[in-house]
Structures are given as C-alpha cells and as structure tokens.
Amino acid sequence: QAQLVESGGGLVQAGGSLRLSCAASGSGFSVSAMGWHRQAPGNIREHVAGITNGGSTNYADSVKGRFTISRDNAKNTVYLQMNSLKPEDTAVYYCFAEVVTGGRGTDYWGQGTQVTVTS
Known about the structure:
Blueprint: E1 3-7, E2 10-13, E3 18-25, E4 30-39, E5 46-51, E6 57-59, E7 67-72, E8 77-82, E9 91-101, E10 104-109, E11 113-118
Parallel strand pairs: 2-11
Antiparallel strand pairs: 1-3, 3-8, 4-5, 4-9, 5-6, 7-8, 9-10, 9-11
C-alpha cells in the first residue's frame, strides 16, 4: 500500500516562488508517472504538470515557462518548482502517482496542499 505525502504549500506574493514536494511511501511497489493537479474554488480539478519515470515532462499551457516538474526516482518523490506566481495560480495542489504492484497500475493522490498567491 502506498501513501503520498505532500509539503511546501503556503502564502506568497505575486511574482514569488514556491516549491512543492510529494513523496510516495510504502514498500512492494514501483512508481510510474507522477505529477500535479490543482483545484481552485468553484473550478474543476485541472492538470498542471506530469513526468514519467524516464523524465519526460508535460505542462498545462497556463504554467509553461514558469513551473518546472522534476523527480527523484530513488526517493519516489516528485517536485514542482513554481516561479513567477500569479494570483490565478491560487488553488489546492494535489500530487498523483501511478503506483505499480504486480504489474498493475493504480492512481494514488496526495491530500492536497494550499497555495495562495496575493496581488
């Protein structure tokens, strides 16, 4: 059984930076794709960025050039470096991971971490 634990959210002024982390803990599994979604009040959850275990990345158009996703495969940890933050980036950020056990993949989600950007 895997568990995702997030950290790094907070309050920042527009133009500032934050770094989110998410670690998959447990044993008996491997981790395939990892990434981040976010959900602002009144909005649906949207994909922000993803990364494969080979290091291929993808980003939502709204964050390209400002956010960088990376991972440490040895630690089963994914990071999201967020620069040039805007008020519209305010949301709860959720990490996800495709956890593979016995050849089968299951999506796991973190508990969410609040990011608030003030103008």
